[in-house]
Amino acid sequence: MLGLRILPVPRRVAPDLVEAFRGVPVANVSDCMSRMTAAGARLRPLSRETRLSAPAITVKTRPGDNLMIHKALEIAQPGDVIVVDGGGDLSNALIGELMTTYAIRRGLAGFVIDGAIRDLDVIGAGALPVFAAGVTHRGPYKDGPGEINAPIAIDGMVIHPGDLIIGDADGVLCVPCDEAAAVLDAARNKSQAEQVTLQQIAEGRLDTAWIDQTLARIGLRA
């Protein structure tokens, strides 16, 4: 039934790509995706550990209800990240200390919650990456409905189950499974180019001629 279903993961990003993305800044990956994809500035890292790279298990739930998140915890594989479309609602927390503790016990990679969490003192000090839109002490309902492993969207960023989710202190980003290898190559090149620029800055030889060239192109002569 649409709105109440559990689907299989049709394909997963390759484990070697998951590992390869761990050291690549999310901002560089975002630049290589034309700066067009993002889960919005509301989703912030709320845990001590912010580095995340993992295949997505997707959950779509009624705002304030976490029944399907509990089920996702049961069926996710070690190394998966649970990504929840909770509609951005902050009235009720969707996860807290108990669920994050259980996720760690099961070897999961983290949570991305388009909604609220609670028990921030514990989650904030923890090593499990948790990204969320807010915090509230009010707990969740557990009645459903919801869907697991259907496509979801967070602020326009579409996530299919098995897609790569990466995160750091700048936020989270979904890299489509079929595009991950090409995006990784581009992001590595971007990172190398930035290292060259940093070296030029350190040596006092950064070429900034492009600034006046751009101003001239748009009609301003400096």
From TrEMBL:
UniProt key word S-adenosyl-L-methionine: no
CDD domains in the cross-refs: RraA_family
Keywords carried by this UniProt record: Magnesium, Metal-binding
Residues binding substrate: G96, E97, L98, M99, R118
Positions bound to Mg(2+): D119
GO molecular function: metal ion binding
InterPro entries named in the record: RraA/RraA-like, RraA/RraA-like_sf
Cofactor field: a divalent metal cation; Mg(2+)
Protein name: Putative 4-hydroxy-4-methyl-2-oxoglutarate aldolase
Lineage: Bacteria, Pseudomonadati, Pseudomonadota, Betaproteobacteria, Burkholderiales
